[in-house]
Every structure is written in C-alpha cells, then in structure tokens.
Amino acid sequence: MAKKTNGSIKAQRFTMDIIVHTILIIMCVIWVLPFLYLIVQSFRGGKYLGMFAESFFPTEWSANAFVRLFKETKQINFPQMFMNTFWIACATCVISTFFVLAVSYSLSRVKWKLRKPYMNFAMVVTLFPGFMSMVAVYILLKTMFDLEVHPERIPLALIINYSAGAGFGFHVMKGYMDTIPKALDEAAYLDGATKWQTFTKVTLPLCKPMIVYQVITSFMGPWCDFIFAKLICGVKYEYYTVSIGLQRMITKEFVNGWFTRFCAGSVLVAVPISILFIITQKFYQEAMSGSVKG
Prior knowledge:
Radius of gyration: 25 Å
Helix content: over 70%
C-alpha cells in the first residue's frame, strides 16, 4: 500500500509539474509575442508600410525602416528626440540616485528629531498617484521658467520634475541600508572618519546591488514617460522626447507611412536600457559575490 501511495503521489506531482510548466510557457509566449512582433515588423520590406500586414512574418526583409528613421527627419525628427530623452534621462538618473541615497542614509544611519514624522509624511504622500499634482507642477514650472517665452528651458524643467521628488522613494533603499551592521559606521567614526566619508567609503560600497536597481529605475522613469513630457513640451517639436515621437508616428496622420519606422524606433528605445543593464549587472554580481564570501 505504501508503494502504491508513493507512486500515486509521484504521478500527481508529475502531472502538476506538467500543468504548471505549460501555463508558464503560455504566459512567456504571450509576454514575448508583442516584442517579437515589433522586431519583425521593423524589418518588414516592400512598398506596404501600414499597420495591417497580411502575415505575421514579412515576405520581404529590409532594414530600410531604420535608415529612413534617421534620414527623413522633416516631419518627425527621431534622432533629435532620442538625444533629448537621453540627456534628460542621464541627468535625472544621476540626480535622483544621489537624492535617494542621501535621504535613505539620513533616515537609516542618522538620528534626528523629525525622522519618524518625515517617514510618516512620505508614506502618506506616496499613497497618492502623481497624476493628481500634474497640473499644479506644470503651472509651477511654467511660471518659474517662463516656458512659453523660453522653450529652451523645457529639458531643465523636465529634469527638475523627474528628480525633485525622488527622495520620497527611499523605502527600498533604506530597508537595505538597515541590514548593514551599524558597527561598521561606529568603527569608521573611531578611526576619525566623518559622516560623509562613512557614507561614501563604507555604506555605498555595500549598497551596490541597490544602487544598480536605483540607477536603472531612475533612468527608465524619464525615458518611458509620455504624459508629463507631452504636457510640458506642448507643440515645441524640437524638444519632444522619444515617447511623444513614437506616439505621433501612429496617429491617423502618419500611421500609414510611419508604422514600420514606429516599430524600428520602439526597438531602438530598448537599446540604452539594455546597455545600462549589461554595464551595471557587472557591479551587481561583484557585490553579491562579495557578500556571499563575507
């Protein structure tokens, strides 16, 4: 009886494994399918450039969409939009990461009177979606920088908008810093180190995995944002970001002639994020291997 019971349990487990793996494979296919479609359509050749293709895979393959995306810039200047977004995302990434690290360190390692009230206030503020303050932030930035008269200040306004509230996103970073023994800080103070030296030479090297996470998320925020960028830029086409440019490519006016270029642009948008992940992954792996050895 025991052998039969064990055999039935193994059969049930085998059946459940097949079901679970089948469901996971189906979910992976569903998740990958849109990305595969974008890549395939970006290499679609021929005269037909609209959305409604006769087959999933094109009958003619060509990289013409990528070439035209960078050459034909009179109506939609994708290279300029790409560089606009790149510089805004890079500046936001540096500033936001520093803000989050500084706020997290001050809340995790430094004792001050208003620390708990600030944490409670930040918790309440983050419960509200950012869309609620969008109009107010837009009016403030428009008034401060006089964007209608000086549209060249639009990138600066976007960087300030993306970076100013980054300090409220301290929760994950602070939780990680709380796991670092405070005895390390005390030892550094006994050796004559200042708080800044302790922050930069003791705490930050131990936070590499979370710094990698923060860098990637800080970069992706402005890189993928559409709503607020569109609100700030208005009709100033020379300051558009890639998300606005891609959305414009699939409007009724442009979709028939720009769809394959839209797919090509969507593929190119993923390149900087992929490169950033590959570069930062090295530091993440080094930090994790070091923590295991320790």
